[in-house]
Amino acid sequence: MKKLASLLALPALLAASSTAFAQTKMFEGFYGQVSTGYENNTISSTNANYTVDNNPPYSGMHNTSNQAASGMPLVLGLGYNFALSSQWVLGLGADYSALSQKTSVFSSNNPQVPGPYGYTNGQNIQISNRYNIFLSPGYVIDQDKLMYAKVGYSNQQIQFNTPAQQSSSSYAPSATQSGYVVGLGYKQIISGGLYLFGEANYMGYSNASLSSTVLQSGGPSVSVNRNPSASAYTILIGAGYKF
User: Above 70 in pLDDT, residue 85?
Assistant: First the structure.
């Protein structure tokens, strides 16, 4: 009798298992998406060490406060989700920030140095070409809802723009910064493969090395070195399609 009951229950168990696994199937596969929202970048350790090639040469530091660059981003993303079980997926993804962000203009100064070497005005910092490569474990709440996390590698370009002042021309040294990205998000399937999503991310970057040599108008050359660090966060909403 027990054997007969087990045989009779087997189809129901298989059907339930198939239905549960179908939940992850809704999110399994390739996807492409686009999002926007709010982005904030903080740039710190922005002081400039300089050496004036005079006779004799001398060195100093221009003090600069931390700077912020914020605005509306445009983030393009691609990835693939693998079904691990009836409720878990693991994604491998990449995204790219297509719009650059700039700080407002700021000044650097050294109050101990009089004359043209004591200050620099009208500078700004630009953040651009950010991309993230990440793993994305996700939990399928039901067949059209997914909660997920992100953890991975991030890279961006940082550039200091300084207009012509005491120097004979403007200069804009740039460098890439590498770091990490962590995030949390939610996807909601609307129809077929079309979905909406919301996401929050944090990126942290190591110090960059920015160096330039500036020829002063009618004067000696000046070597300028900076080692800025950066961090950023984004709050995004967007739409995508799972193929």
Answer: yes
Beta strands 29-44 and 67-71, pairing class: antiparallel
Exposed (0-12), middle (13-18) or buried (19+): which is 5, by Cβ within 10 Å?
exposed
Does a cis peptide bond (omega within 30 degrees of 0) precede residue 56?
yes
Residue 29, phi-psi category: left (phi > 0), alpha (psi -120 to 50), beta (remainder):
left
- Mean pLDDT value of segment 150-159: 97
Domain that holds residue 115: 20-242
Which residue has 């005491």 as its token pair?
166
Q: Is residue 3 part of a domain?
A: no
> In angstroms, rounded to a whole number, what is the distance separating the alpha carbons of residues 215 and 169?
8
Residue 170's CATH number:
2.40.160.20
Establish if 10 belongs to a structural domain: no
Q: Is residue 136 part of a domain?
A: yes
Q: Which amino acid is at 59?
A: S
Q: What per-residue confidence (pLDDT) applies to 170? A: 67
Pick the more confident residue, 151 or 117: 151
**How many domains would you assign to the chain?**
1
* Residue 8 pLDDT grade (very low, low, confident, very high; cuts 50, 70, 90): very low
AA letter at 4:
L
* E strand spans, the chain: 29-44, 48-52, 58-62, 67-71, 75-83, 88-97, 101-102, 106-109, 119-142, 145-161, 174-191, 194-205, 210-215, 221-226, 229-242
Q: pLDDT tens digits, residue range 67-79?
A: 999 999 999 999 9
Its pTM stands at: 0.84
In a domain, 5, yes or no: no
